[in-house]
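Exercise 3.2. Students should predict the tertiary structure of the chain below and write it as structure tokens, then compare their answer with the key that follows.

Predict this chain's 3D structure.
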Amino acid sequence: MNHAKIRIAKLLASYNYGSRREIENLISNQKIKLNNKIILTPATFVNEEDKITINGKKVLFKKKISILKLYKPKNVICSKNKQDKREIIYEILDSKYKNFIFAGRLDFKSEGLIILTNDSSLTRNLELPKNKFERKYEVRIFGDFNVEKLKIKSRGTKINGIQYKPFDFKIKSKIKKNTLIEMNLKEGKKNEIRNIFKELNLQVNKLKRVSYGPFKLDNMLPGDLKKPSKIELEKYENYIRKQKR
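Answer key:
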């Protein structure tokens, strides 16, 4: 454990007891005690060896693993740091999630499911190619679609020196030159789907990830943040358990 003293709001926020502002509000309302004494100012420095209670309940300095599903809206960047004037995902999230990391980067124009967590091992597990977590996408394309050409690409293809693995797909609907396709990828390299359709002279008008491994977007709307279901978590844990055997 870290023995250095830091401001109490920063320490408690790092263990997911709320955002710094929420912790400071609890202090203002005299809801937090340090070594059995009410804390009166947020300028109080503590570490994990101190006895701290919130509303009479002892603070346990054990990292609570949190997993959340985010529906990333279109035109938002998957990044921790501001790159330009465009919005990043942490600007659409509550400040208490600013220390969370994400798995399943989507490009600026794409939307759909991203996994947020404070557990780095979970993001590694999801993103490691050897684990082969399936990513499912809905892709709306415009142009003269030839299913046979996409079948050839789906067996594995090389574009601009980058090798893409085989993928599965099915056509969900087709109206004139607009085609809605469901694609299942096991790897998902940067701009993979857009590069494949560009090679086929087709324009991607919408790209949405609807599932990532056992985690599903379901009826979430852009910007929604939701806890995974018990079934989703159990499926993830069972899969990882099998991989470690």
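Discussion points: The longest strand covers residues 203-212. The first helix runs from residue 8 to 14.
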